[in-house]
Amino acid sequence: MALRTDSERERDALIRNISVAVIGVLVVGLAFWAFGVRPAQQKAAEMNAIAADVQEARENGTPDATLLAEESDAATTPAPAKVAFVGDSYTGGSEMDTGKGHRWTDLIAEDLGIAASLHTEGGTGYVATSPDGVNLVVRAGEVRGSDLVVFFSSRNDVAGYDAVREGALKAFEAAEESAPDAKLVVIGPPWVDGNPPPKIRASRDAVKAAAKEVGATFVDPLARGWFAEGKSGLIGSDGVHPTDAGHEYLADKIEPLIRKALK
What we know:
Elements: H1 6-59, H2 64-76, E1 82-87, H3 89-92, H4 104-112, E2 115-120, H5 136-140, E3 148-152, H6 161-178, E4 183-187, H7 198-214, E5 217-219, H8 221-224, H9 244-261
Parallel strand pairs: 1-2, 1-3, 3-4, 4-5
Helix pairs in contact: 4-9, 6-7
């Protein structure tokens, strides 16, 4: 076999070096594509989408400062707590008040910044039922997704201790099934002065026992003397339902309970 000349060896070495260099360039290029160009393209696509949203908002007359504020608020503001209120017309309102925005549930929702939902049925209770078959047991099954469920039990329940206790237990169980992670605050039946009749006291005792059985927080308006001061203007001309002033009074009593429960 003929020996290669020096020039041939130099040529072969040059070819090898060029081949290695080409392969290196290809490897670097592929790496750059995998880790640089493709993510950059994705990021560019995201930026283009944001720019399109901003342009659309500008065309609709939204100032840039507002857009920035909305982006910041969305990133830093936690979702409001979801609080469900279950009760009768003391919770849902009556003709004795001036309507939405003036009732104790609305006042508390505004003060605490909560997302409130009402599940009420006038003239009913845990046992007392409307002609359509609705009571607080039915309404308690509507509280899905709530963080806190507040029951304001009813002066309409006069069926006796055993029946009211059983009805209250069904309502609390319906709420727990609908919102398994929710806390329960149970407010006993109210009265318009400091002299509630025996049937209302029995209803209070029944609701208190049911709340204790399920581990709910129980609040006793009778023992705490709600409306017992005899202050005029809190109860309407029907002698039963709270006025706007009465709803403000209830908000002052109930808001601290909700604030504590949400901690």
